[in-house]
Amino acid sequence: MKEQKKQLRKQIREEKKRQLAYGLLTASTTLLDQLEKHPRFIASKTILCYHSLGDEVQTHDFVEKWHTNKKILLPVVIGDVLELRHYTGKDCLKAGAFGIEEPTGETYTDYDEIELGIIPGVSFDKQGNRLGRGKGYYDKLLPFLHCYNIGICYRFQAREEIPCEPFDRKMDEVWTEEGRWA
């Protein structure tokens, strides 16, 4: 199972290298514009998102756009776990683990208040299974959350089926720039 996951991560990494930066940015914008119209997004006041790395669906502008109307939480890498912190603007960010800009401030622990999670992944499948980067950060965080989770990725990352293990938590929905995938 671990070898299958490793091979799929490698395959998708290679596919990402073949994509044009402008195309990925356009796909990110299209995906997030659609997600803004989702009834769960519209109704949610507290949303877990992420501050994207260069090879992920680009969320920087999305987070900045919505942080004054909704409580946007972003993960912060602390050792081998993710802590959540409230995003209050670009001035609250500092470079953290893996070069990800992370919010400073107090740890947010009121998990029951989170209504929607927008979750990144290397790949997702039709059943809502998620393949992460292999460090297990979201595998440790997701069991604490009781919110509706939407996995997001580029269409070329989505698969009919991916290898999964019993501890992998399924997404409620998966979206790409083409709309709802699963």
Query: Runs with pLDDT <50, length 5+?
Result: none
The DSSP helix count reads 5
Ends: how far apart? 22 Å
**Cα-based radius of gyration, to the nearest Å:** 15 Å
Task: Give me the count of strands.
Answer: 12
Helicity level: 25-40%
Oligomer: single chain
Overall average residue pLDDT: 95
Q: What would you call the structural class?
A: alpha/beta
The main sheet comes to: 8 strands, mixed
Strand order of the largest sheet: 6-3-2-1-7-10-11-12
- Measured by DSSP, the beta-strand proportion falls in 15-25%
Helix and strand element order: HHHEHEEEEEEEEHEEE
Shape: globular
Question: What does this protein structure show overall?
Answer:
By secondary structure, the chain is of the alpha/beta class. The chain contains 5 helices and 12 strands. The protein has helices at 2-17, 21-35, 39-43, 60-66, 137-141; strands at 46-48, 71-78, 81-86, 93-95, 101-103, 107-108, 116-120, 123-124, 130-131, 148-152, 173-176, 179-180. The chain has an 8-stranded mixed beta sheet. The longest helix is centred in the N-terminal third of the chain and has 16 residues, at 2-17. It is globular. The model has no long low-confidence stretch (mean pLDDT 95).
